[in-house]
Design a protein that fits this description.
The protein is α/β, with parallel strands linked by helices. It has 2 domains: 247 residues, Rossmann fold (3-Layer(aba) Sandwich), CATH 3.40.50.300; 81 residues. It has 15 helices and 13 strands. It has a 6-stranded mixed beta sheet with strand order 7-8-9-3-10-11, sandwiched between helices. Strands 1, 2, 4, 5 and 6 form a 5-stranded antiparallel beta sheet that branches. A two-stranded antiparallel sheet has the order 12-13. β5 and β6 form a beta hairpin. α4 runs parallel beside α7 and α7 runs parallel beside α8. The longest helix has 16 residues. It is globular. One of its GO terms (molecular function) is ATP binding.
């Protein structure tokens, strides 16, 4: 277990997490712990990725940082600080003042997250109006500027369209615009490229990179290591609610030390291995996937292939340095060529 990854110093420190534990009360037994002794720092303009399969605790960790762990949650920590302010035992009113203005949240499914009956511009305008008092015309101008900022073409027209009239990439960018409407110092992105094709993924990631270059700190929740390799400075690998490995992205992806990290990397496709299945099946505790089910219903382990949808054909990763370069691991020169600061 890696309990804490501490590198941030001075005024660049945006978020400090030490000894974070999250449990959920149950009707049929004692509380079940899903996040265990997690710790890390987040600096200004830094992107860290929380990586792991479903049930690893990464999303619960992220939601706890937004005060959204849930009514049945028990949150304990040695330190949980945002800009030197504690996040422990805060009121709902306090959190409403923080969410959006200090911490933004990008959800993973734009089609579900956006109101299908409202133009996306109205959704973004609502986010702006939560913390800023301005005339309607000024608010609409801010919406158009936000859409333009995240790379939406013809923003005046797109702002008046409903989610169903937009492509997946444009919907996701509208969500990002809503998340950054109040210029929060930290943005939490929960699987922001899920269900997007490769071209659209690249466009969304370019928006995230632009945000990071401008000083926004990003916590990326992902199971996609190809995405992580492009935008993250550091990786925290989570399994069973714990950080089992942590370090700089290139170091983790090129020389993983933990067996679970190697399994995650081995599940990344390469062009030479398309269509074959993994030769080994990692396993995840069934109880981690179904926290609200009775313990008797979810005993034992579930193969990772089943946990992520066993019907999928997953690629067999090759062995050796040549294949490692082809598994979505971006070399240092390629990072520089894309303009990503390292």
């Amino acid at each position: 277990m890696v309990a804490s990854t501490d590198i941030a110093v001075g005024n660049d420190l945006r978020l400090r997490v030490r000894g974070l534990n999250v449990s959920f009360r149950r009707n049929d037994g004692p509380p079940r712990q899903v996040v265990k002794d997690v710790g890390f720092d987040l600096q200004r303009g830094e992107c860290i990725a929380l990586v792991g399969e479903s049930g690893s605790g990464k999303s619960v960790t992220a939601r706890t940082l937004l005060g959204l762990a849930g009514e049945n949650s028990i949150v304990q920590a040695e330190a949980l600080e945002l800009d030197d302010e504690t996040l422990i035992n805060r009121s709902d009113a306090w959190w409403r003042g923080v969410r959006g203005s200090k911490v933004g949240f990008i959800l993973q499914d734009a089609l579900v997250s956006l109101d299908p009956l409202r133009p996306v511009g109205k959704e973004i305008a609502e986010a702006v109006a939560l913390h800023r008092s301005m005339a309607r015309s000024a608010r609409w101008a801010a919406v158009v500027e936000l859409l333009e900022r995240v790379g939406v073409p013809e923003p005046e027209i797109r702002a008046k369209q409903r989610p169903g009239e937009l492509s997946g990439g444009l919907r996701q960018r509208a969500l990002i615009a809503s998340a950054i409407a109040l210029d929060p110092g930290i943005v939490i992105a929960d699987e922001p490229t899920t269900a997007l094709d490769v071209t659209v993924q690249a466009q969304v990631l370019a928006v995230l990179e632009q945000m990071i270059a401008g000083g926004t700190s990003v916590i990326l929740i992902s199971h996609d290591l190809a995405v992580v390799s492009r935008v993250a400075d550091r990786v925290l690998v989570m399994k069973g609610g714990e950080i089992v490995e942590a370090g700089e992205t290139e170091q983790i992806l090129r020389a993983p030390q933990h067996a679970y990290t190697r399994q995650l990397i081995d599940a990344v496709p390469s062009e030479h291995t398309k269509g074959t299945r993994l030769s080994h099946e990692g396993r995840v505790a069934a109880a981690e996937l179904f926290p609200d089910r009775a313990a008797s219903d979810v005993q034992g382990d579930i193969p990772l292939l089943e946990a992520r949808g066993g019907h999928q054909e997953l690629p067999r990763a090759g062995q050796g340095p040549a294949h490692r370069r082809q598994r979505g691991l971006v070399p240092a020169q390629a990072r520089r060529d894309t303009g990503r600061r390292r």
